[in-house]
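Figure 2 data, in text form.
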Amino acid sequence: MRELGRTMVFAGAALAAIGALLWLAARPGGLPLRLGRLPGDIAVQGKDGSFYFPVVTCILLSVVLTLVLWLVQWLKK
């Protein structure tokens, strides 16, 4: 039960941190880092349509989530 409680506390803290970031990002002036519009993201606009693929945003989110999950595993030991 102790491990379950510890996991729930860390999950709650992570959700609170994510919520705070989303709240701050929605404010005018928000965060200086605009996810989804980073340099290196692919955006092509043509006559009949457009294509957008956030390559750098995907890489950044992957690194952050990897670090968070690594930290959770490390704290479990």
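Caption note: The helical segments are 2-26, 55-76.
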